[in-house]
Amino acid sequence: GWCPLSPTGAQTTQLLVEPPWRPAVLWDQVTLTCQGLGTTGATTWYKDGQRCGQQGHDHLSVTESGTYRCDRPGTGLSPPVIVSDDDLVLQVPARALLEGDTVTLRCRG
């Protein structure tokens, strides 16, 4: 039957976290990378719902805790990434996890 989604239409904007653990913590010197369709250098960044940073850069070095998202003209708004400034954090790998996966947790402080 007829399907409304072309393979390219299914693309979404992704926000990658380096180092690749969630929740991200400020003292890890976190870098966010925005990936999506559309022109490179057309990224808009948001922190706690407010536009922030210079438009255009695909990478953001995080200097404050908060909830970050990025927007690309071709694929829209990314899912949120939380950067915490907690002294103690239990982290999971920043990739999609499925039930039954073996996963390493990190308790860090």
TrEMBL record:
GO terms for molecular function: transmembrane signaling receptor activity. InterPro entries: Ig-like_dom (IPR007110), Ig-like_dom_sf (IPR036179), Ig-like_fold (IPR013783), Ig_Fc_receptor (IPR050488). It comes from the Eukaryota. One of its GO terms (biological process) is immune response. Residues 7-70 form the Ig-like domain. Keywords: Disulfide bond, Signal. One of its GO terms (cellular component) is external side of plasma membrane. This is FCGR3 protein. The lineage of its organism: Eukaryota, Metazoa, Chordata, Craniata, Vertebrata.
